[in-house]
Amino acid sequence: SHGDEVWVADNIYGPNMEHLRNLEQRYGITVQVYNPIDATSFQPSEKAKLIWLEAAGSVTLEFPDLTALVKKAKAQNILTALDNTWGAGLAFNAFDFGDEHLSVDISVHALTKYPSGGGDILMGSVVTRDQHLHHQLFRMHAIQGICVSGDDVAQVQRSLASMQLRYEHQAQSCIELLNWLKLQPQFAQVLHPADATSAGHTYWKEICRAGHSAGLVSVIFKPEYDLAAVRQFCDGLSLFKLGFSWGGPLSLVMLYDLKPMRHLEHTHLAQGILVRFCIGLEHPADLIQDIQQALQHLPNP
Question: How many CB atoms lie within 10 A of CB 21?
Fold first, then answer.
């Protein structure tokens, strides 16, 4: 409603921020930004109605302080909504997590990714255990005329049977790449929640107790490699295809300039162009070899 306040993480999925800025202009809501790894930056006013969480961030992969953020929101009767696409309902339970068995109010998934299995369906889900919230969401769903194809639903249902197997395989392959990437001199920083040097690692250990993580890893090139050089690296990849999304059978790569993407100042991120690798079902040794040969395309700094 007009005048309501919505809080979003600074590492939010880009199109979500774009959508919120549009709603801000059209409907008179206020969008506030917080640092997901610093719960003290979440300072809601009495007008705050919703905090949007993302675990982990889809590009820089910080794992948020879910416990502190959710507790703070609930203490002030603020709705909590979590983009749980990264965890896929497997890394942790959004409705029962941590020592205090906390729960978010709404869990959102991009079914396009791990659930679909093929990365060729555009679909999402919004899940809540609250009956009143369910009726509110269902009513808005009907008003907006949102619907999905029965064939797409059937394909997602069919792929769910193999989702855990695929998730675990891609996660393990990603860890192998993570360990190799950390040894490469071209990178100033490697980002993955399971790595002890990555922001939010402690919160990841607290919530994802079985050590689960998605098949995403990002690297930040050293500053001497400019955007043109990093594009040359991406063009040199063969198994990794250039594209958005993740969670499908094919490995994907995408490069980002972080400067226009962030609203807050972050000291935990190195300066440089970021490249995110989405790990598919290929053999990790083949993926490592592909990155290794593409690094040879980099010009001398």
Answer: 11
Q: Where are the domains of the chain?
A: 5-156, 163-295
Q: What is the 3-state secondary structure (H, E, C) of 249-280?
A: CCCEEEEECCHHHCCCCCCCCCCCCEEEEECC
* Whole-angstrom distance, CA of residue 60 vs CA of residue 276: 8
pLDDT digits (tens, 9 = 90+) for 82-122: 999 999 999 999 999 999 999 999 999 999 999 998 888 99
Phi, then psi, of 86 in degrees rounded to 5: -60, -45
Environment class of residue 100 by beta-carbon count within 10 Å: exposed (0-12), middle (13-18) or buried (19+)?
A: exposed
Distance CA 233, CA 246 (A): 20
pLDDT exceeds 70 at position 263: no
For residue range 139-195, what is the model confidence (pLDDT) as tens digits? Answer: 988 888 888 999 999 999 999 999 999 999 999 999 999 999 999 999 999 999 999
Q: 97: burial class by Cβ within 10 Å (0-12, 13-18, 19+)?
A: buried
* Nearest of 153, 103, 95 to residue 124 by alpha carbon: 153
Tell me the pTM.
0.92
5-156 to CATH, choices 3.20.20.140, 3.40.50.2000, 3.30.70.980, 3.40.640.10 = 3.40.640.10
Distance separating alpha carbons of residues 14 and 285, to the nearest angstrom: 31
d(CA 66, CA 48): 18
Question: What is the homologous superfamily of the domain 163-295 according to CATH?
Answer: Aspartate Aminotransferase, domain 1 (3.90.1150.10)
Burial of 22 (0-12, 13-18, 19+ CB in 10 A): exposed
Helix/strand number for the chain, H first, E second: 8, 11
Residues in CB range of 235: below 8 A, 6 or more apart: 242, 297
Domains 5-156 and 163-295 alike in fold? no
